Amino acid sequence: MRAKYLASACAVATLFGTTAAMAQAVVTPATPTTSTKPPLIGQESTDDAPGNDDVIVTATRRAERIQDVPLSITAFQQEELTTKGIVGFEGIARETPGVILNRPTQNFNNFTARGIATNGYNANLQSSVAVYIDELPVSTIGNTTVVDPNLFDVERVEFLRGPQGTLFGSGSLSGAMRILTKSPDLNNFDRSALVDLGLTGSDSFRQRYNAMINVPIIDDRFAVRAVGFYRNEEGYLDNVGTGVHNSNTLIDYGGRVIALIKPTDSFSIRLLASYENSDPKDSSLTSPSLGREKRISDRPDRFTGEQTILNATIDWDLGAGKLTSSSTFSDFNQRFYVDLANTFGFAIPFALDADARDKVFVEEARFVSDFSGPLNFVVGGFYLHRRRDTDFNYRSSIAFLRARNLTGLPDEYYIRQMTYQNSNELAGFGELTYRFSPRFWLTGGVRYGRLDAQAFTEAGGIGSGSNYYALALGGVRNAVITTAPFAAVTGIKAEAKKPSWKASASFKPADNITTYATFSTGFRAPIVNAFAGRPSLVTPNDIIIPAGASSDDLKSYEIGTKTQFLNGLVTINAAAYLIDWSNIQAQANRVSDSVQFATNIGAARSKGVELEMGVVPAKDVFIGLNAAYNDAKITRLSAAEAAISGAVLGHRLSAPRLQGALFTSIGFDLGDTTKGTLAINAQYVGSYNSSFPNTPGRPGVRIATFGKTDEYVNTNISFGIKRGPVSAQAYVENLFDDHSVVYIHPEAFLASRSGTLRPRTVGLRLGYGL
Questions:
Q1: Per residue in 10-64, pLDDT tens?
Q2: Can you spell out the DSSP letters for 383-413?
Q3: Which domain holds residue 597?
Q4: CB–CB of 127/110 below 8 Å?
Q5: Domain assignment of residue 1, yes or no
Q6: Pairing of β 238-239 and β 294-295
Q7: Over the stretch 241-296, which tens digit does the pLDDT of each residue have?
Q8: Beta partners for 449?
Q9: Total domains in the fold of the chain
Q10: What is the DSSP letter of 448?
């Protein structure tokens, strides 16, 4: 069951993005690069860029070469996204060391970074990785729909690993991901288009269409950039409950318009309006026991999202630094329709059709100094307000009610409950850097935030104290189901006031080497459980739902180095970390009725190493490698904490011990004006635990839903041709048709709980323009 009036102070919206990347076949030149990514043809330099081959990131809120930033950060530029066929969260996670994506189905995404996860679902817990699109935080709680973005015409994607609380807030407990859309070009007319057609299996057709146009209205002063996209991707699973073939089809469409107004060289206004409608027709979770590519539910499980975003960003260069104000309004409608009947072994119909509407306002203002001396700083303020209205509609079925002659309902819904929640976050933040010399500097940062959230039940609806479960599970016939309205209820307010800290020391023993040591902290907002104090209506002697979970605490210690050799032809970035995570927020489910709840347990320690390497061994040849090792375990746990959560001392958290990726591209001439590129990309992810191993409320008893994902290797291959603005790329995804289980849902109410790789897909991308 969904918790009815969860009160957590996390920022919620949804992602808007764009689909597959620009259709340029990547050709690797023999020029040096400052990234572990392949050097890319047509890569634009910015005003702040030291050189055309430098990868510039803004993870510290100022433009810097990625090799000079004392952070573990992986950056993806548009050309790389295209070559690797990365169109959303899934591809980003597989290419980022130390990161996995727990993805039950389309629009259901939860990142884990550096082992900081008790399961892959995080229901009712604030996400541990903050996700931003431009200035808008869009990450949310684990059982809320978040639209999977389409990555077309983006400037860059940055994934920052480790706590990022000083600049990105409480939701960045273990990292932050930023999707940065591309601003209009004030001087040049531009356009691009990409068509991606693919075939999954024998009869699942995939269509992706993308287009962009950039129009300067007044040279140097005013331009508009517009992007549109449409995806129609037929599914590859058969739902044996509904009888639908290829049931998990995705229809996704939308676009954005960005206007850039620059009345003076020092002042600009950027206006963005975006819309996306993502509509998967069924879930992508499978039941391996039914056979390959099979799932079961009484009706399609629907996790849809419709997102509108409006943003106004003002940048004012004051000489001594840049003042930025970003104001964002987001409107998000979602459906969370799921068959819960496996809670009772399909003995009775039991499902939830939840409709939610989010309205979010976010304001961030900051000043980034640009002093010529040794001292520079970032200082700013952040405010978020969100109202979420959720209608919980629990249903039986007309056929079941008629067969039992159960009356008293106007339709098949025995509970209709209307709720809403108000969440607020107000924070001030700052980072200060002092350079003792060009080779040594110190950075310190703090963010102090006040978070609160409160949920309410509105008067009305039906089903308060409903006797449906007693009648249905008891086999009763010829009875009346109670339909009493709900009384208005004001939930307990969850509040937190806490700082996040950061301190780092950076040293460059040579121009091509950056080393650093960093200490940083993080936390998540407190949780109030919806059914706190209530016994089970099914099994009264089951555990009583606890009050909730207070904020957890995380302390991270990291050392790293970023190096280049042979005039930039070899790049090696490495980091080692140790993380102490205490008062851990954990999600569990009461066994008798699947009610979700949050609680706190002792402590865990995560330690590991990460490596990114890029090599240009010859002209037009690139070899890229990333790898990560992680060891994350429960280190402190009381008997009471073990009993209520199902955790075990020494249990490995839900992250693989080993993972990595290898990318190779070879470019060659196919004539005076035509270039070809052959690319092979393989990702390895080790096995990991799906959840805690024991049953909440039953110490020492193994929970039936516990499992381990498969270790797997996913291999993709492509061959691209580019001539002038026209390009074509043939590709095969999941070359060996691997069917490994890459996600296991930890809750028993789903009969289909396994996520798998998409089967082998053969396709062609046709593109025009850059």
A1: 322 222 222 222 222 222 222 333 344 443 322 333 334 333 457 889 989 988 8
A2: EEEEEEEEEEEEE--HHHHHHHTEE--SSSE
A3: 7-768
A4: yes
A5: no
A6: parallel
A7: 999 999 999 999 999 999 999 999 999 999 999 999 999 999 999 999 999 999 99
A8: 427, 498
A9: 1
A10: E
Which of 286-323 are b and which e, b meaning 16 or more Cβ less than 10 Å from the residue's Cβ? bbeebeebbbbbbbbbbbbbbbbbebebbbeeeeebbb
628 is a domain residue: yes
The token duo for 519 is 């200490």
Q: Which helix (H) or strand (E) holds 656?
A: none
> What is the pLDDT confidence band of residue 144, given thresholds at 50, 70 and 90?
low
Q: Measure the CA angle with vertex 177, ends 171 and 180; round to 5°.
A: 125
In a domain, 469, yes or no: yes
Give residue 681's Cα distance to chain centre: 22
Spatial neighbors of 499 by CB under 8 A, at least 6 apart, are 446, 447, 448, 449, 521
Residue corresponding to tokens 């817990």:
125
* Chain centroid to CA 543: 32
The label of the residue with tokens 């510039």 reads 56
Which DSSP symbol is given to 244? B
- Whether the CB-CB separation of 170 and 37 falls below 8 Å is answered with no
Per the CB < 8 A criterion, the answer to whether 545 and 574 are in contact is no
d(CA 14, CA 20): 19
Residue 120 has pLDDT above 80, yes or no: no
CA distances from 606 to 154, 180, 298, 558, 632 (A): 33, 30, 41, 12, 4
Model confidence pLDDT, tens digit, residues 682-715: 999 999 999 999 998 888 899 989 999 999 999 9
**405 token code pair:** 């002659």
Triad 747, 750, 751: Cα angle to 5°: 125
Give the C-alpha separation, 704 to 534, whole Å: 24
Query: The domain that contains 420 carries what CATH number?
Result: 2.40.170.20
- How many other C-beta atoms can be found within 10 angstroms of the C-beta atom of residue 595? 25
Kindly tell me the sign of the dihedral angle through the C-alpha atoms of 75, 79, 82, 85. negative
How far are the Cα atoms of 6, 240, 415, 446, 727 from residue 157, in angstroms, in the given order?
A: 31, 39, 43, 25, 23
Closest CA to 614 of 559, 563, 659: 563
Q: Smallest Cα–Cα separation from 153: which of 42, 253, 88, 79?
A: 79
pTM, full prediction: 0.88
| Helix, strand, coil fractions of the chain, as percent rounded to 5 | 5, 55, 40
Name the one residue in this structure whose structure tokens are 């460059």.
508
Residue with tokens 């798998």: 756
Other C-beta atoms closer than 10 Å to the C-beta of 726 total 14
Bridge-based pairing state of the strands 513-522 and 553-565: antiparallel
Strand blocks (E) in 523-620:
527-528, 548-549, 553-565, 570-589, 596-615
DSSP state of 468: H
**Under 8 Å CB-to-CB from 510, ≥6 apart: which residues?**
none
- Residue 2 in domain: no
- Using alpha carbons, select from 391, 500, 488, 418 the residue that is nearest to residue 451: 500
Segments in 657-716 forming alpha helices (H)? none
Q: Is there a contact between 502 and 445 (Cβ–Cβ < 8 Å)? A: yes
Summary count for the chain: helices (H), strands (E): 6, 43
Coil, strand or helix: which one is 607? Answer: strand
717 strand-pairing partners: 680, 732
Residue 119: pLDDT band by 50, 70, 90 thresholds? confident
